[in-house]
C-alpha cells in the first residue's frame, strides 16, 4: 500500500474550509484518509513518506464550472480554431486537461465540445490513460442556426434538437447543453425547441 503524509504551515480543509495551521494529510492509495490538526503531535506510521511544503498553503481541489476543452482562449484566433479537424481539437483538449490539473482543478464541467471530444476524454481520464480533472460532460452543444454559441452546432427545428439530444444521451453525457443567449438583432429563440430537448431524457 502506498502511504504518505503531506504537511504545510497552513491547510484549508473540511466542510467549512477551516484554515488549519501546522497540519497534515494522510494519503493512502491516492486518497485522503485523515486530516491531522497538529502534525507535530502525530506518531508517523512506519513506511510512510513525509512531504513537507513548508510555508505553502494547501487547498482543496477547485471545480471549473464552465469549460470547453478544445476552446483555448489563450490562442490567437481561438474561435476560428474551433473549425479545426477532430485530431487538432483533441490535442488541445488533452493539453487543457493537463493545464487545469496543474493549476489545481480536480473537477471540470464541460459545456459542449465538438466530435464528442469531452466524452472521449472523460472515459480516457477515468481509465487512467490521460491526466486531468474528473469531467462532467454534455457532448455536442446545441444552438439554433441563427443563434449564439460558437462552440455549439447549429440546429433547425424541434426534431433536429431531439435527434442530437438522443445521440448525446446514447453517448453517455451527464447533461444536455443548449446555447440560448440572445445576440443583437438575432431572431428570438423558439422555446418549443427547448421543450423537445427537456422531454428527451425523460423518454430515454
From TrEMBL:
Coiled coil: none annotated. One of its GO terms (molecular function) is hydrolase activity, acting on carbon-nitrogen (but not peptide) bonds. SUPFAM superfamilies: Composite domain of metallo-dependent hydrolases, Metallo-dependent hydrolases. It holds the Pfam family Amidohydro_1. Keywords: Hydrolase. InterPro entries: Amidohydro-rel, Metal-dep_hydrolase_composite, Metal_Hydrolase, Metallo-dep_Hydrolase. Residues 57-186 form the Amidohydrolase-related domain. This is Amidohydrolase family protein.
